[in-house]
Each structure stands twice: as C-alpha cells, then as structure tokens.
Write a structure and sequence with these properties.
single chain; 10-stranded mixed β-sheet; about 260 residues; Spore Coat Polysaccharide Biosynthesis Protein SpsA, Chain A; alpha/beta
C-alpha cells in the first residue's frame, strides 16, 4: 500500500499536465499513488493522463460525470486515497525531484502531522520569476490573516487527523481545509526549502485576485462562521498583506510578510 496519496484535480489541463506527471514519476521517493480526478475536460486531458496511467499503475484516473469544481474533484480523490499521507498537486504545477522524500523526512523526524514548504513561481514557459518562502509555523489565526500555505506543498497525516475534506466552495477551498486541520492541531509547520513550482497564468492573474478576495470573505462568514467584526478584522489583514506582497515586496519582506 502506498504511503503517500497525491491528490490532483484536472480540468482542460492537457497543455500543462505532462510536466506535472513527469515531476511525480521522477520523485526520489517512490512509495506513492497519484489519484487524478478529471472534472469533465473538453480537451484531450483524459487521453494524456490515461497514457501515463497505462505505463505506471501508481497513477489512477477518475472521471466525474459532470463538471463540479476543484473541491469536489479533490474530495473525490481524498475519498479514494489509500495512503497515510495526503499531498496536493494541481495539474499545472510541479515538484522538485526530492519533494516527497524531504517533506516526509521533515514530518517523521519531528512528528509533525501537517506541513508545507517554500516554492517558486513560474510563468507559462516554465521560467522562474518569483519565490515564496514560508514561516517556521502558522496557527489558525495566522492563516485567517494571510494564507502562507501553497496547496502544491501541503501534506497532512491521516493517522493523526483521519481523512479531512475541503469545503464545497468554488475557490479558496484549500484554505478552508487548512483551517479545518488547524482546529485539530495547534500548528502547521513550514519547511523553508523550495520543493515546488507554481505556475502563474497571464490571463487569470487580475481575475483571480478579485475572485479570491470575494471567496475569502465568503469563507470567513459562511464556512468559518466568523462574526462581522471578526471577519472584517481578518479580511483587512488579508487585503493589506496581499497589497504589500504584490505592490511593495520590499516593505513586505521588511515586515516579515514575505520570506
């Protein structure tokens, strides 16, 4: 039985997922399974994924009957997972070859049930243009102010938590899951070493910022059930920190918001 299950939602990802798959099959740690849930893609994603699955039985493809969003896709994969550790990797992101080996060693040596790591930002051509470092640890309250956990680096231990699922919202469901986990443990621990590559698409940057803000507010109010004053307090931190990271990275680094 695999020790790690890798959770990957896929939707019209045929252009990028080949690199994602290669980054997984190239891992120095090989006791894993990868469950890819295709959310009714209209391109040839299924064919690309299936061609890899035919060559490597550790890769498993599930196809949803109707387009349902990333939260449903990820939860479907979590439900099917057999590994003790649950890791996340989206279909346009990639890992360094020793990602699983280093993160597992970090977790097991310190008995950490929930961890994350630093990563680089890459453009559509795969060129690195930014770096996201991480703090040593974060709390539930810290994450409400600013989410420092990149989904492509998050990993949790089901032996400690059991299987924990994402809230059924279209965006920010990953943050919703981290908050769920941090209600069950005090800290998520950061490994400040670059273990992943997060792809930023040109055509979605501005739209994602506005949409992410809206869904963050909805997460505070509808999922976390924060009072209006508390939600406003945390959202103000979220907005200001986001502005500093984007427009004034030097100031953000000075204040410890960027590593």
């Amino acid at each position: 039985m695999a020790l790690v299950t890798i959770i990957t939602p896929s939707y019209n990802s045929s252009i990028f997922i080949l690199k994602t798959l290669k980054s997984v099959t190239s891992q120095s740690f090989d006791n894993w399974e990868m469950i890819i849930v295709d959310d009714c893609s209209s391109d040839n994603s299924v064919e690309v994924i299936q061609s890899f699955a035919d060559q490597d039985p550790r890769i498993k493809l599930i196809q949803l009957a109707e387009n349902s969003g990333a939260a449903v896709a990820r939860n479907t994969a979590i439900e099917a997972a057999k590994g003790r550790y649950i890791a996340f990797l989206d279909s346009d992101d990639a890992w360094s070859p020793d990602k699983l080996a280093k993160q597992l060693a970090f977790m097991q040596a310190n008995d950490y049930p929930f961890t994350f790591a630093a990563y680089d930002k890459v453009d559509e051509a795969g060129k690195v243009f930014g770096h996201v470092g991480v703090p040593d640890k974060v709390t539930y309250s810290d994450l409400l102010k600013s989410c420092s956990i990149g989904c492509l680096t998050a990993m949790y231990d089901t032996e400690f938590f059991g299987k924990v699922y994402m809230p059924l919202i279209r965006k920010r469901q990953d943050l919703g899951l981290w908050l769920k986990l941090l209600k069950k443990t005090k800290y998520a621990y950061g490994l400040n070493e670059t273990l992943g590559f997060y792809k930023v698409r040109k055509d979605s940057i501005s739209a994602n910022k506005k949409s992410a803000a809206l869904f963050t507010w909805r997460l505070y109010r509808d999922i976390e059930k924060l009072s209006l004053p508390k939600a406003s307090y945390y959202f103000s931190h979220y907005a200001v920190r986001g502005l500093l990271r984007t427009k004034y990275p030097g100031v953000a680094r000075f204040l410890g918001i960027l590593k």
